[in-house]
Amino acid sequence: MNQSLLEILVCPSCKGPLSYQKNNAHNNHPELWCRAEKLAYPIIDSIPVMLLEQARNLSLEELDQ
């Protein structure tokens, strides 16, 4: 993901920082994680989907990574 884009994107819920996760065991696509809200936003076809309705809840195991 483009670093300059990552620097300006924030969580739509808390306005906090996001971290890029390339791939994980839960999904086959990259995501942007908000650790404060425990939410993961999908990146589909190189486009971050920053909608709360499309976010999934992160498990405690994922947050410990």
The helix content is: 10-25%
- Contiguous helical run count: 2
Evaluate the radius of gyration.
Answer: 11 Å
Give the SSE order as H and E letters.
Answer: HEEEEEH
Percent strand: 25-35%
Biggest sheet record: 5 strands, antiparallel
Strand element count? 5
- Globally, the shape reads globular
**Which structural class fits the helix and strand makeup?**
alpha+beta
**Which spans have pLDDT < 50 for at least 5 consecutive residues?**
none
Mean pLDDT: 90
Tell me about this structure.
The chain has 65 residues and is of the alpha+beta class. The protein has 2 helices and 5 strands, in the order αβββββα. A hairpin with a 4-residue loop joins strand 2 and strand 3. The longest helix has 6 residues. The two termini are 20 Å apart. The model has no long low-confidence stretch (mean pLDDT 90).
